[in-house]
Design goal:
This protein is α/β, with parallel strands linked by helices and about 250 residues long. The protein is built from nine helices and nine strands. Helix 1 crosses helix 7, helix 3 (about 65-75) runs parallel beside helix 4 (about 100-125) and helix 8 (about 225-235) packs across helix 9. The structure holds NADP nicotinamide-adenine-dinucleotide phosphate. Belongs to the short-chain dehydrogenases/reductases (SDR) family.
Length: about 250
């Protein structure tokens, strides 16, 4: 369990707000009367979301220390809900993954949420606030997404530790496959038959419900919880099933 946190009307920072899941979260929070800080790199897309949600746009590259600092500066002494959605993917065998891509995945998916949470923790504590990390079902291990999986598993471990030590509410959201621009941007289409894609609004609804309900983790769709349970209780069986449905590349 995490702490139950009221969402309506609270000041919220949403990273990755210019697209997909982040934009859907921003729209849901705006409908609940939350003043927003919307973070992304793409100025025009951020402005289009802001036209629907209100709030303040902060254009920042979370792959850089300067970008992370500018978001922290915009949110300090203000933020009550810190929602980390920004992220990038990459698919392919580990040995073919460019070293620069490894660095970028680590910086955007893991480094930025860690640094931003660290910088804003005193503000969140004073506000009885809540931090949300959008991880992925890949956190339990997916073939040909080793670095991405590592960043998402790292995020999950970080969330578990912060939940224990900080006194603020902490929720991890683990989506399966979501219909966004994620796959086009990573340069590799989604090829598996399941899990099926869900709309980003479903993830946004699961996220808000989990914060209000005091859930430590939520899988979207919910049935993916089963995969995580098998992974935890019977890792060898999980690995056997994974190899059967998604054989390793040669
Ligand atoms: N789609 C899926 O199937 C799926 C499944 C599980 C988990 N997730 C996770 O969900 C999150 C959102 O993904 P999505 O599906 O909504 O993909 P998306 O539509 O591609 O959105 C990604 C968001 O991250 C932002 N972003 C990327 N790099 C950034 C950087 N260097 N600095 C600042 N912002 C950056 C993008 O902003 P700009 O374009 O403005 O830079 C965009 O707003 C990611 O963390 C992803 O790993 C997605």
């Amino acid at each position: 369990m995490s702490r139950r946190t009221r969402v309506a009307g609270r000041n919220a920072v949403v990273t990755g707000a210019s697209s997909g899941i982040g934009a859907a979260v921003a729209e849901r929070l705006a409908a609940m009367g939350c003043p927003l800080v919307l973070v992304g790199r793409d100025r025009d897309r951020l402005a289009a979301v802001r036209a629907r949600t209100g709030g303040r746009a902060v254009v920042a590259d979370l792959g850089t220390a300067r970008g992370v600092e500018s978001v922290a500066e915009a949110a300090v002494d203000w933020v009550e809900l810190l929602i980390h959605v920004a992220g990038i993917g990459w698919a392919g065998p580990l040995a073919d993954t460019p070293a620069t891509t490894v660095d970028e995945l680590m910086a955007v998916n893991l480094g930025a949420p860690v640094q931003l949470t660290r910088a804003l923790l005193p503000t969140l504590r004073a506000a009885d606030g809540h931090v949300v990390f959008v991880a992925s079902i890949a956190a339990i291990g997916v073939a040909n997404e080793a670095v991405y999986a590592a960043t998402k598993a790292g995020l999950r471990g970080f969330a578990d530790a912060v939940r224990l030590e900080s006194g603020v509410g902490v929720t991890t959201v683990l989506p399966g496959v979501v219909a966004t621009e994620y796959f086009r941007r990573r340069g590799t289409a989604y090829h598996r038959r399941f899990p099926r894609m869900v709309p980003p609004q479903r993830v946004a609804a699961g996220l808000v419900g989990a914060v209000e309900g005091g859930k430590a983790e939520v899988f979207v769709p919910r049935w993916l919880t089963l995969g995580a349970r098998v992974h935890g209780a019977a890792p060898a069986t999980f690995a056997r099933l994974s190899r059967r449905f998604d054989p390793p590349a040669r």
